[in-house]
Amino acid sequence: MTLSFDVDAVRADFPLLETEIDGHPLVYLDSGATSQKPRAVLDAERDFLERANSAVHRGAHTLAAEATELFEDARVTVAEFVGAEPEQLVWTSGATAGLNLIAGALGYAALGRGGADARALAPREGDEIVVTEAEHHANLIPWQELAGRTGARLRHIPVHDDGTLDMRAAADLIGERTKIVAFPHVSNVLGIVNPVAKLVTLARGVGALTVLDACQSAPHLALDLPASGVDLAVFSGHKVYGPYGLGALWGREEILAALPPFTTGGSMITTVTLDEAEYLPPPQRFEAGTQPVSQAVALAAAVRWLGAHDLAAAHAHEAALERRLREGLRSIDGIRLLGDTDAAERVALQAFAVDGVHAHDVGQFLDSRGVAVRVGHHCAQPLHRRFGLTASVRASAAIHTTEAEVDTFLDAVSGVRGFFGVTTAGVGA
Fold first, then answer.
1. Which of 133, 160, 165, 417 has the fewest CB atoms within 10 Å of its CB?
2. pLDDT tens sequence across 132-161
3. Domain 7-30+310-419 classified CATH 1.10.10.10?
4. Is the pTM value of this prediction over 0.90?
């Protein structure tokens, strides 16, 4: 049975949305940085800590058994959220940690760790790692480091003026020397959904490993990572209505089985002597140390909460917000949109510059009216340089955002240049 989407009912699940800022109702348009948490998530973590808190995988007592069951049930739930099997899902402290795990494991493989299958995946001198010009630093710097350690060359797919990837350049760049192709599903600055299938086809054609940053897509799009064709992917719990300090790395079983561990210690071993160790199979191989148990339970609650809604209706709601947001900004004098295109699928996220006013000043002006947005380079300095900017303002909506909130935001933006006395077009800050 199809459920109806009631944004007011959704909002009632978020206590923080009742906040006022300087006498104004909070308009939270910073979900691209971190999402708010519904009561179901807050209650799930508190309930675990009050009722079942214990270390997992290492105790024989009742609490330890219950905690372990809840922890592994959470893995099943979150794996299902992305169309995967639980043994394909590795808990990490976030997407950044997941990307560093992949790059670090490949670096160890290049040194001969992990056997022949691992070495076959690792880049070597003369190989190439391909990323895009639209990367978050978390999906750029680990590859810079891996290239530096292995002698591989780092190359990037440029973006057009409208923010879409230059797929003709991608076809030229991805060739017989390409070992890894890493790219975002959705740019955290442009809001554009990248052509995953086309990039996977190019990479598979040359036998390259594909790594997907799904941080900005997981909260907004239906994900089936195995069906997407990518080999590895990461996403963050705190962007999908879940807790801080937890992310997930998904990988094809044969890839995870080949990779050597990156972080080592307890919980991920079978046998240890004073001279050597043998490691558990994935996913435990990559989960050394104390486990994020309450966070995993909370993330499972988040995806169950999300799945309880009519997601097709929710996605349609967010698509309408995206159009209202972008078309409204287009209509305001002195606004320059980054990635302003109607030719690509998008999520409700838009970065922009205001002529003659620095992004940080715009952010403070909006905050004084209760509107929370992101300002800065959004951990994407190369992309901002591509557009001749050092910073921008980013508004990002969520399932609980209303059309009235978007209108409040647009009304506030329309007053920025007048407030700062800017009457002629200047240079976007």
1. 160
2. 999 999 999 999 999 999 999 999 999 999
3. no
4. yes
